[in-house]
Amino acid sequence: MIFWESFFIFLIGLILGSFLNVVIYRLPQGKSLIFPASHCPKCETPLRWYHNIPLLSFLFLKGRCAYCKASISWQYPLVEFLSGLLLVLLYLKFKPHYGVIVFSFFAFFGLNLLCLSFIDLFHKEIPDSLSFSLIFSGWILALLSKNPLSLSFLESLLSSFAGIGLLFFINELYYLLAKRDGLGMGDFKLMGGLGAYLGYKSFFNVLFFASLIGVVCFILMRIYQKLSREDLETSEDLLKKEIPFGPFLSIAGLIYLFYPQSLL
Ligand SMILES: [Zn+2]
């Protein structure tokens, strides 16, 4: 029973992931999310419905456009799969104990983080519409029902401002030491969204895991460059590159959501 339920939720996740791909592609360009219908970004031929089936179309088209054979980005199946997986995990965690409304809010939370992580990765920015909707929906959840992290509305409200303030403060500190910004405005607002959903008690864990994942990624990038003998950048150069922090914050937020044990 729970298998088929999960399978059904996974399929819904795939479909939502397919929509997230559209958002990831169009939102930063300020294009409409609904019109025109999906088309190949290269040859602009509108896609048939069977070119648009999550995961499966990518497989049977062997990752190429059916018309011009341009290769389709790995981002499409990856976002669809992650979206399906995330929705199932959230469903199993929240639906049985807290009901469908709380699950829906956390589904919005998780998929929003997935979406803004990819936009941050590609465009080095987090759209306000995503971070603000995270903050407001977090407040509404705390107002409507008992938050699984037992956050009151006031706590949710204050935590979101505390999150924004905390990253602003860290960035100022970094600026004093390094003479440049380490974080962006988008990161501040994202931390506000995490605060609204997870509360200020999550901040230590979130920053700890986000930094840890950041350091691991940094080391992996170095190893990759060494192995592929790309013209080696010094660590200094690599650090000066704008490394998006949004994906790290998002992953850390999700880790806390599933394991809300404070490290402190
Ligand atoms: Zn094409």
UniProtKB/TrEMBL annotation:
<dbReference type="InterPro" id="IPR014032">
    <property type="entry name" value="Peptidase_A24A_bac"/>
</dbReference>
<keyword id="KW-1003">Cell membrane</keyword>
<keyword id="KW-0645">Protease</keyword>
<dbReference type="GO" id="GO:0005886">
    <property type="term" value="C:plasma membrane"/>
</dbReference>
<dbReference type="InterPro" id="IPR050882">
    <property type="entry name" value="Prepilin_peptidase/N-MTase"/>
</dbReference>
<keyword id="KW-0997">Cell inner membrane</keyword>
<dbReference type="Pfam" id="PF06750">
    <property type="entry name" value="A24_N_bact"/>
</dbReference>
<feature type="transmembrane region" description="Helical">
    <location>
        <begin position="6"/>
        <end position="25"/>
    </location>
</feature>
<dbReference type="GO" id="GO:0006465">
    <property type="term" value="P:signal peptide processing"/>
</dbReference>
<keyword id="KW-0489">Methyltransferase</keyword>
<keyword id="KW-0812">Transmembrane</keyword>
<keyword id="KW-0511">Multifunctional enzyme</keyword>
<comment type="function">
    <text>Plays an essential role in type IV pili and type II pseudopili formation by proteolytically removing the leader sequence from substrate proteins and subsequently monomethylating the alpha-amino group of the newly exposed N-terminal phenylalanine.</text>
</comment>
<feature type="transmembrane region" description="Helical">
    <location>
        <begin position="126"/>
        <end position="145"/>
    </location>
</feature>
<keyword id="KW-0378">Hydrolase</keyword>
<keyword id="KW-1133">Transmembrane helix</keyword>
<feature type="transmembrane region" description="Helical">
    <location>
        <begin position="98"/>
        <end position="119"/>
    </location>
</feature>
<dbReference type="GO" id="GO:0004190">
    <property type="term" value="F:aspartic-type endopeptidase activity"/>
</dbReference>
<feature type="domain" description="Prepilin peptidase A24 N-terminal">
    <location>
        <begin position="11"/>
        <end position="94"/>
    </location>
</feature>
<dbReference type="InterPro" id="IPR010627">
    <property type="entry name" value="Prepilin_pept_A24_N"/>
</dbReference>
<comment type="similarity">
    <text>Belongs to the peptidase A24 family.</text>
</comment>
<keyword id="KW-0808">Transferase</keyword>
<feature type="transmembrane region" description="Helical">
    <location>
        <begin position="74"/>
        <end position="92"/>
    </location>
</feature>
<dbReference type="Pfam" id="PF01478">
    <property type="entry name" value="Peptidase_A24"/>
</dbReference>
<dbReference type="InterPro" id="IPR000045">
    <property type="entry name" value="Prepilin_IV_endopep_pep"/>
</dbReference>
<dbReference type="GO" id="GO:0032259">
    <property type="term" value="P:methylation"/>
</dbReference>
<dbReference type="GO" id="GO:0008168">
    <property type="term" value="F:methyltransferase activity"/>
</dbReference>
<feature type="transmembrane region" description="Helical">
    <location>
        <begin position="157"/>
        <end position="177"/>
    </location>
</feature>
<feature type="domain" description="Prepilin type IV endopeptidase peptidase">
    <location>
        <begin position="108"/>
        <end position="219"/>
    </location>
</feature>
<keyword id="KW-0472">Membrane</keyword>
<protein>
    <recommendedName>
        <fullName>Prepilin leader peptidase/N-methyltransferase</fullName>
        <ecNumber>2.1.1.-</ecNumber>
        <ecNumber>3.4.23.43</ecNumber>
    </recommendedName>
</protein>
<feature type="transmembrane region" description="Helical">
    <location>
        <begin position="198"/>
        <end position="223"/>
    </location>
</feature>
